[in-house]
Amino acid sequence: MGQAGRLPRYVITVLVFGALWYMLVERLAQYWVVQPEYSFGWLVPVLCFYLFFIRWRSRPTAAPPHLGWSRLVFGVTAFGLGPTWLIAQANPDWRIAAWLLTAETVGLSLGAIYWIGGKSWLRHFGFSVCLMATATPWPTVVESKIIHTLTELSTVVTVSALNLVQIDAVRHGSVIALRTGMVGLDEACSGIQSLQAGFMLALFLGELYRASIGRRVALLLCSAMVAFLCNGLRTLSLAAVAARQGTEAIASWHDPVGYLLMAGCFLLIIAVSRIISGPLPVLAPVVAASSPRSYPYRLMLGLGAWLLFVTSGTEIWYLLHAPARTVKWSIAWPVRKSEFSEIPISKAELDQLAFSEGHGGEWTDADGSHWVAYLFKWAPGPGWSRILARGHRPEVCFPAAGYKSCGDHGMIEVQTEGLSIPFHALDFEDGGKKSYVFFCLWEEGLNSSERPRPQDRWSQFTRLRSVLLGQRNLAQQTLEIVVSGYDSPEQAETAFRREIVTLIKTGAKVEVADASGSLVLPQVAKRQ
Length: 528
Description:
Structural class: alpha+beta
Number of helices: 14
Number of strands: 15
Helix content: 40-55%
Order of helices and strands: HHHHHEEEHHHHEEHEEHHEEEHEHEEEE
Distance between the termini: 58 Å
Number of domains: 3
């Protein structure tokens, strides 16, 4: 068959797999937008395409594929794409779904390569497709442990270096106490961003230089050391700025120093790869027999039709289950309480959490206990709001601020205003002072025929239930209340149950009375 006759078939392949990879990038981009440690993900599809392109220029002789077992694997993988896409729509924060979608996209791409060029093409092009896995968020358990370890290590090294240069610094968990104030290390400063981006770049360069397995392993180890070194310089620089100019100066130095050292990290890894791998290899000329041996035209058409069915069917499913009404509740802030004051939301917190509305307040109860509350809301629509609402939880944020976890009492439910609202009860300690935390994660959006139900701990069953109920892109809100001044968790819970029923009110807006008795609305931070 002539070149003109083959052209439409390759156009179909490009369109089908272009749509497939667009679906994957669209899902993963929700992490790349809101989580700084994965912002490098935008670069990965470009690098994959570049590797594929240079590999295409030196493609080997195509080998005949064995279609029997490969068709079965391809069909099972394509079928699995349907439920994965349906689940991912309702659970954009579920990293298992992200990994399944990545594995299915990569698997289908490798299957098509195998059918067209056999094992020789699969070995030749495989890495350029598999590199996409580096842009997929790591499993939460693994990532949390690495962040915790890197944060502690970075804090120890930074404090030691500051004292070495005659700057007084004391470590409190992941917080550094200076004479000018307290400096905390966020996730970006932990070094996880440099580490993940460094691994991605090292894998790309190893393939670009066509290095041996041993040299690629050495390059990965060197990239980890370079990432840790650059991140250590970053935290040391910011802490030194805070010690000399005050903690307020960190905001103006944080991003420029971060970008500068990230660029330095990348340049050092490129230099190391050149030393380890040697010069770039000369591309071998394309042989005459490198044209495809076969082309699964019908299977490509079938995959295209299946993708169309999956995407349109998913949209229809969620449109049919769109909520007719929503159950909303908010906080009637106790402005008449003793020493009530509003906690301002900083611009850095607003940029990090990207909420639609946020408010914080603190007060003292009649028994002398101290209360702090934060209420954040995310408007319905973008899937990344669900990632943000679930990404900043007390069991993550308190240890990062230097607190020691000393108790997890599971879920407790509060009955108020006709709702059963769940709270996760946890205990933390800092300097011998106990803090009792009650955290609620709530999704607005119930069908008119559905009774209000609690959102319990976000388990796999709860995630699948959201799919069956057709709930996606719902408004999110979190309420975190921190209580101190009680001797035991039981006393704190009793006081919390007594207080919370006076705070929670249903409705879109809640008015509160000030000390003079006039009605006012609480000031809120809003993201434009």
